[in-house]
Amino acid sequence: MSYTPVLLDGKALSKEIEESLKKRVANIIRQTGVVPVLATVLVGNDPSSEVYVKMKGNACERVGMKSLKLHLPEETTTGQLLAAIDKLNNDDSVCGILLQHPVPAHINERECFDRIAAEKDVDGVTCHGFGRMAMNEPAFGSATPAGIMKLIKHYNLPIEGKHAVVVGRSPILGKPVAMMLLNENATVTICHSKTEGLPEIVKGADIVVGAVGKPEFIKADWIKDNAIVIDAGYHAGGIGDIEISKVKDRAMAYTPVPGGVGPMTIATLIMQNVESAEIQLFKNIKLQSDIEGGVVELAETPALL
Ligand code: NAP
């Protein structure tokens, strides 16, 4: 049997998304006079994190929003980081808050993530947001998993009834992507470092998601023909968590590394910041217009929270 594997081009799709976001941001500015702001919080000096935060800030500015960059020193305490988040929560000009993961080990990251106000949790990192998403209620999804789902859906790939195997169960990636696949009626298996017989489990997968954080850990010969192969990993030398180069010719579809999941993560974060801005800023202008009896043309604003 021969296959024509589909390259899931996250780079191209993220560009398309950015173009549509430019229009939505222009509409927000035209109607409210406010330029939406994404606050990015980076703690410490991890070079990869610095690059990721810079890329996110740049993407924000490309679509016409502002980014407010907060860079805190390595020795920041949990209390100081919580205070910084409180300040951003209370700043009406800030529509979304991104706290870059990971923070230094001495900080209680979960407590800090959960301090982010639900309506500003555009990176989808709070327990509240996760719970709502898992219950299939409107919420900002965790950015990387939500980006993966957008990519799969954009290419109309089958999810319902399929066996999805997610390797990794981190709070920002493995667990939420498993819940999102479940919400789309996949039959989901979540694997982790204590899983026994991993190769055999992966061999049963119609959809494989690699979210392990180890270069080419998932071997090509564990993956059956015609599977959808999603690689969230990114390591030096442009390789991911899966042996993509060895499996792509017999996959139904696959994400390239780089250019697959990475750009979709950023596009999703920016999109969710635009949605947050629409909800927060149009709510204000609508109240104002009610008072003045004016008419406001609303963009698509999902009732999120
Ligand atoms: P993480 O927090 O380190 O989680 C790794 C997961 O892999 C854990 O659940 C761990 O299991 C599991 N694991 C480790 N060794 C394993 C083994 N031998 N067998 C099976 N499972 C094993 O990593 P993460 O933050 O989820 O990131 C995963 C990957 O995605 C990394 O390569 C990261 O760079 C990438 N990533 C990419 C983006 C993007 O925008 N492209 C965003 C986020 C992350 P336990 O839970 O049992 O420890």
How would you describe this structure to a colleague?
- The chain has about 300 residues and is α/β, with parallel strands linked by helices.
- It has 2 domains: about 25-140 and about 265-300, Rossmann fold (3-Layer(aba) Sandwich); about 160-250, NAD(P)-binding Rossmann-like Domain (Rossmann fold, 3-Layer(aba) Sandwich), CATH 3.40.50.
- Helices cover about 45% and strands about 15% of the residues.
- It is built from 10 helices and 9 strands.
- It has helices at about 10-30, 45-60, 80-90, 110-115, 125-135, 145-155, 175-185, 200-205, 245, 260-290; strands at about 5, 35-45, 65-70, 95-100, 165, 185-190, 205-210, 230, 255.
- The strands form 2 sheets. A 6-stranded parallel sheet has the order 1-9-8-7-5-6.
- Helix 6 (about 145-155) crosses helix 10.
- It is globular and about 55 Å long.
- Residues about 290-305 have low confidence and may be disordered.
- The protein binds NADP nicotinamide-adenine-dinucleotide phosphate.
- NADP nicotinamide-adenine-dinucleotide phosphate binds near residues 195 and 198.
Taking all residues together, what is the mean pLDDT? 93
Bound molecules: NADP nicotinamide-adenine-dinucleotide phosphate
Oligomer class = single chain
Proportion of helical residues: 40-55%
Number of domains: 2
Number of strands: 9
Strand order of the largest sheet: 1-9-8-7-5-6
